[in-house]
Every structure is written in structure tokens, then in C-alpha cells.
Amino acid sequence: IVLTQTPAVHTVSSGQQAVLNCNIERYDGNYINWYKQVPGEAPQYVLRFHYSDTSLRFSSDRFNSKSSSNIDYQFIIKRTQAGDSAVYYCQTWTMTKTSSVLLHLQIILPPPVLTVFPPSSAELQSNTASLVCLSSQSVPFADVSWLAGGSPVSSGISTSTAVQRPDQTYQISSSLTIQTSDWNMDKVYTCKVSLGSQTSEKTIKKSECPTE
């Protein structure tokens, strides 16, 4: 069975309604399962739906499911929250095969809070050192990149998997390995966090950092 889920990436502002669509190639008495997965965790079962169902149970009163036919299904999230940002799977099965398709749901939040930490004095005794960028109050699928002297950096970057905080937003950490000589020459480094067209930046250079 071929499943089609649209749109492949769905972006809404926090508080708005999100509608995820799933179409199955043909109807064989199928149920539709919906799963949610956030970075670093196993998929979570959300609900099961059949087009003829009239009474449903959901894990949240913000969730609903509808069908316009026996092959077209919708998963609806009302009053979206930061914690709703995730990959959602639409799944169905037959006696011989299970099929699934995924979709990214991104909730637009205010710009994340960026903090860039300079190298330690101990690190600066060697030829290389590290800058660390911490992006807080973010969404899980934000992209982190670095600039050095205004030019994109393609190596020496290590970015963590997003970690969910108690407020349902995410924290992402990224480190950049730099040459100590460049740091001492007061080169400007920029941590850039992007989600679609939304971008936040934080710069750092030696002369603007307090001395230990």
C-alpha cells in the first residue's frame, strides 16, 4: 500500500491549528495509526483511527482525527504548543505488509536565546580551542551553523541532538574548534540558528570577552 502524507514539512505558529493529511492508495478495511517522534527518542503512539469510527479516545483533548473518505485521513492538533514540534508518522498495514510515511511539524516560536562561550584559559595554551554555542527556548529541528570572519565554516563543528526542557522547548549545543592564533588575532565568530526563514545570530571575539 502506498501512503502519501502532505505537506512534507508543515510550519505553524504556536497557538494555531495544524492539520496533517494522509492518503492511502486503496482501502482494505485499514485503520490508520499516528505516531510522534522527537529527536533522540523512540516513536510514541498517538492514536488509531478508522473512517467509520464515531467515538474516539485521544491522549489529549487538543487532538482529533477525521476522514473525508475511506482513503483520506486527517490528524488535527488544536492550539499547537512548542512540544508539538516533531516528526509524525502515518501508518497502515495489510495482512502481508506495513506501510508508513513521515512528516515534519514545526511550531514557530519567538527567536531562541543564544549564548556563545569563549575558550577556557587552559585551552588557549594549545594550538586549538573550542567555542560553544547554546541555543535555548528553541524547536528541535533548528539548524546550527558557524561563520568565521563572516565566511561559512564547514569543518570542526559538533552539534548535539536537541534536548527537550520542562517548558517543552528544546536546547541545542554546538561547538566549533578554532585555531588559537585566529582567536588571539580577534577574529569574529558567529553562531547562527535557522528555522526556515527565521534566523538568529550571536557573535563573539576575544576583545569583547572578560579576561580571567
What does this structure look like?
This is Ig-like domain-containing protein. InterPro entries: Ig-like_dom, Ig-like_dom_sf, Ig-like_fold, Ig_C1-set, Ig_sub, Ig_V-set. This protein has 212 residues and is mainly beta. It folds into 2 domains: 106 residues, Immunoglobulins (Immunoglobulin-like, Sandwich), CATH 2.60.40.10; 95 residues, Immunoglobulins (Immunoglobulin-like). It is 2% helix and 52% strand. The protein has a 5-stranded mixed sheet, with no helix packed on it. The longest helix is centred in the last third of the chain and has 5 residues. The mean pLDDT is 83.
Instruction: Report the mean per-residue pLDDT as an integer.
Output: 83
Q: How would you write the strand order of the largest sheet?
A: 2-9-8-4-5
- Assign the CATH superfamily of the largest domain: Immunoglobulins
Number of domains: 2
Protein name: Ig-like domain-containing protein
InterPro entries: Ig-like_dom (IPR007110), Ig-like_dom_sf (IPR036179), Ig-like_fold (IPR013783), Ig_C1-set (IPR003597), Ig_sub (IPR003599), Ig_V-set (IPR013106)
Pfam family, one: C1-set
Organism: Oreochromis niloticus (Nile tilapia)
Characteristic key phrases:
Immunoglobulin-like, five-stranded antiparallel β-sheet, 2 domains, mainly beta, 212 residues, single chain
